[in-house]
Q: What sequence folds into this?
């Protein structure tokens, strides 16, 4: 048996691949376009591991995908591949539509053609797991209850609109064509191998370099944070026991205001890498212009996946963020590798000089 993972050289996909191969002998074919966010260095430990095959290519390339399906005959596909950064989607939404919407559409069509080539038992066992986000539900006020699986979709950014569109396609391909799909809608992840354009790794990276820590607006926007390894365990559980056609919200029960996240990281760095007497990392906090259309609050009600599939996160925000800060301190070579020229262009475009 084989899994086809898409986007497995990105942050969550790579964590998933690495974790999977610790616990299973089942091989993985990893289809990744290797955009700026895809990094083969993350998978270097698998270089001579016969269980992992990295294929550089686009989920929207139907010929390539059809060929991979025919060659490897996977028993499941886990679709991580996406453009994933809200700020980039504001600057340039076209790539988001291409990969997140058209790419998912092409992938679904390839699966639709592939399924009849499997035996009856293989068709029954086959799953297409689509990895999505809580951002499709839009924004909450401070007193609103968290998102459930039946909260209406109300995306506000080009990123979340493109993910919502892909979720709708996945749903429709189940209802119309009977594709055995599963969708997970997860809150903000953090942990090892997170590209330093997102809040948590950006703050760690800048703080270590003595650079300003940019906080958008008043810093009181709230996100639910989940340690990436917990997201990977949720995906494994949904793949194993989720009911085709259903969606599962995945969250960490860890709502935090952005400014508190930044201060927590600063506190940890003060412990691990104290600055000269009288200075604190929090001195670097700088409030900057807000993100256009910035969603105020996301919160996930993850009771369904707990009730039906018995999944709960293992880490709290306190344990997860401590491990994450420590990981960045221990893995500066990885950070140097990904913060290349292209990364610096993005930083100067987004934050100015
Ligand atoms: P990421 O940006 O770190 O990685 C995305 C990966 O997809 C990269 O390796 C990239 O090269 C690859 N890719 C992009 N376009 C592709 C294409 N057309 N064909 C093949 N590969 C392509 O993203 P991530 O944070 O790892 O997110 C993975 C998935 O999880 C995404 O679908 C995202 O929407 C979803 N998600 C992310 C979070 C989060 O907090 N990061 C939370 C919930 C859901
Ligand atoms: P981000 O990591 O981009 O994830 P998302 O927008 O998908 O939630 O941002 C998390 C929060 O942090 C979000 O409210 C925007 C905010 N933020 C900043 O305040 N400063 C920054 O430099 C970045 C990148 C994000």
A:
């Amino acid at each position: 048996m084989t899994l086809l993972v898409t986007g497995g050289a990105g942050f969550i996909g790579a964590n998933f691949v690495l974790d999977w191969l610790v616990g299973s002998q089942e091989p993985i074919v990893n289809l990744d376009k290797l955009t700026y966010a895809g990094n083969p260095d993350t998978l270097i430990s698998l270089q001579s591991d016969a269980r992992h095959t990295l294929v550089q290519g686009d989920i929207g390339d139907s010929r390539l995908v059809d060929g991979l399906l025919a060659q490897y005959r996977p028993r499941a596909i886990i679709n991580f591949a996406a453009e994933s950064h809200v700020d980039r989607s504001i600057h340039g939404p076209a790539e988001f539509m291409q990969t997140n919407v058209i790419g998912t559409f092409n992938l679904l069509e390839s699966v639709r053609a592939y399924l009849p080539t499997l035996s009856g038992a293989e068709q029954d066992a086959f799953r297409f797991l689509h990895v999505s986000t809580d951002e499709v539900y839009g924004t909450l006020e401070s007193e609103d209850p968290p998102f459930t699986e039946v909260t209406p979709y109300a995306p506000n950014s080009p990123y979340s609109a493109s993910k919502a569109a892909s979720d709708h396609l996945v749903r429709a391909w189940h209802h119309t064509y009977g594709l055995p799909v599963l969708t997970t809608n997860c809150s903000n992840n953090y942990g090892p191998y997170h590209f330093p354009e997102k809040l948590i790794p950006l703050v760690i990276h800048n703080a270590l370099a003595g650079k300003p820590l940019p906080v958008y607006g008043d810093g009181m926007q709230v996100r639910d944070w989940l340690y990436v390894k917990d997201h990977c365990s949720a995906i494994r559980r949904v793949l194993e026991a989720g009911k085709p056609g259903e969606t599962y919200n995945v969250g960490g029960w860890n709502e935090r205001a952005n400014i508190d996240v930044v201060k927590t990281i600063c506190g940890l760095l003060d412990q691990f890498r104290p600055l000269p007497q009288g200075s604190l990392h929090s001195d670097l906090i700088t409030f900057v212009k807000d993100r256009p259309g910035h969603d105020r609050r996301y919160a996930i009600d993850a009771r369904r996946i707990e009730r039906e599939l018995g999944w709960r996160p293992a880490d709290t925000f306190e344990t997860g963020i401590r491990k994450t800060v420590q990981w960045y301190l221990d893995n500066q070579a990885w950070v140097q590798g990904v913060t290349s020229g292209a990364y610096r262009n993005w930083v100067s475009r987004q934050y100015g000089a």
